[in-house]
Every structure is written in structure tokens, then in C-alpha cells.
Amino acid sequence: MRVVLTLIFVTISSVAIWGYAADTTESVFSNPLSAQNETQFMTKVNQLQLKKEQTRQFTQQKQIAALKRPLISKGTIVLNPKGICMATQSPFSSAVKITSDGIWQQTGNRKAIVKSADDHFEIRHTARILIALFTADKKVLQNRFSIFYWQNESQFQIGLRPKDRILAKIISNIVIEGSANIHRIAIREANGDTTNILISDETPTQHITLDTCIQ
């Protein structure tokens, strides 16, 4: 499972960009989901829930402890109730599509690699988590994670800590931030590596859909 998660996070992987500072992740974990913030959380989840496919731009930065400089990639993200696809344009062309059926990966013009969810429990498990992450599916998130929530007049944060012992050996926590939409997803791995995915509201120049992102 660690190989699958690492593959996805490296392919689809800042600090203090677009108004989000690195230390904002601390505040949300002081606010576990409770009767005091449950209504606010549900209102936000309902607002974020995808009703139709969205295509937006993303910038990803992955900081690996062994490297001095972060790995940075940019591209187009497709958010669909049935799954997600992240198509990277720089530094090289690649794409990862995730649905409940499995994971598809493609680099350049090479033939896509398909990993079936029916054949691999860990892939099915990973796909469900990541789809829930991008579609703000409260039921799946609550089953898999301890949830934390914080908001003010202009910004919200959802904090996630894995309940699953296997997943907890890989991921320390996840923070989802935004305003009207999700604008940042910060993933802190148990080994200290971090991944920040920044999602812009701007319409991307590359027009793709969930069906066409991998040929």
C-alpha cells in the first residue's frame, strides 16, 4: 500500500503560496469534530460536494527529507463525482486517474498502466480515500479518519488523521483548506515528507475530462 500511495502522491504532488502559510495546519487539530462545529462542518461539506465535473489548475510541491529542493509539478486536475484525474504538463507529461474501479497511470505517450481495484484491496482502499478527499464525502472520511474542523469568515480547514493502522504508518495527517472551493491539500507523511497540492479557480488551457485524461 505504501508503494501505491507514494506513486500517487509523487505523481500528483507550497508552502506560503496563495495566502496559505505552513503553520496554519496546527490550528485545525485543536478543533476535533463535535457538537460545537458539526453544523458548520456539514454546511461546508454540502457546499463542497461535487454535483458535476470540474476542471481546474493545480500546482504541487513535494518536500522529501533527503532532498534540499522540493519537487514541483503543474497541470490540470479533473474533479468528478466518479473519480479524479491529475494531468501534469510540467516538468514532464504524465497523468493519474483514480476511480472506484482502480488507478490508471500514463507517462508521455506510453501505454497507460492499469491497476484493478478488484485485484488489489490496497488500491480499492486508496482510491476510496482519495475520491472522498477531493469530493468531501463526509461518510467515507469519517469511517477512515478522525475529523477536525475550523473556519472563520473567509477560510475553512478540515483536518484528517488516519484511523486505519496501516494507513497511519504512511500518513500522519491531511489538511484541506479553502474558501468557497478547496484550494489547498497538505499531506504530511509519517516519515516527515510533505506534499502540498494547490488548486486554482482559474480555467486551465488544457481541456480534458475524466474520460479523456488518459488515452
Describe what this molecule looks like in 3D:
The protein has about 220 residues and is an alpha+beta fold. It has a single domain, classed as outer membrane lipoprotein receptor (LolB), chain A (Clam). Helices cover about 25% and strands about 40% of the residues. The chain has six helices and eleven strands. The chain has helices at about 1-10, 25-30, 40-50, 120-135, 140-145, 165-170, and strands at about 55-65, 70-80, 85-90, 95-100, 100-105, 115, 145-150, 155-160, 170-180, 180-190, 195-200. The protein has an eleven-stranded antiparallel sheet. Residues about 1-25 have low confidence and may be disordered.
Index terms:
215 residues; alpha+beta; outer membrane lipoprotein receptor (LolB), chain A; eleven-stranded antiparallel beta sheet; 6 helices; disordered N terminus
The count of DSSP E runs of length 2 or more, i.e. the number of strands, is: 11
Distance between the termini: 26 Å
Helical fraction: 10-25%
Largest beta sheet, briefly? 11 strands, antiparallel
Q: Structural class of the helix and strand makeup?
A: alpha+beta
Number of helices: 6
Uncertain parts: 1-23
Shape summary: globular
Strand order of the largest sheet: 6-5-4-3-2-1-11-10-9-8-7
> What is the string of helix and strand elements?
HHHEEEEEEHHEEHEEE
CATH topology: outer membrane lipoprotein receptor (LolB), chain A
The Rg value, from CA coordinates, equals: 16 Å
Our estimate of the beta-strand percent is 35-45%
Total of domains: 1
Task: Please state the second-level CATH architecture.
Answer: Clam
Please, what is the CATH homologous superfamily?
Lipoprotein localisation LolA/LolB/LppX
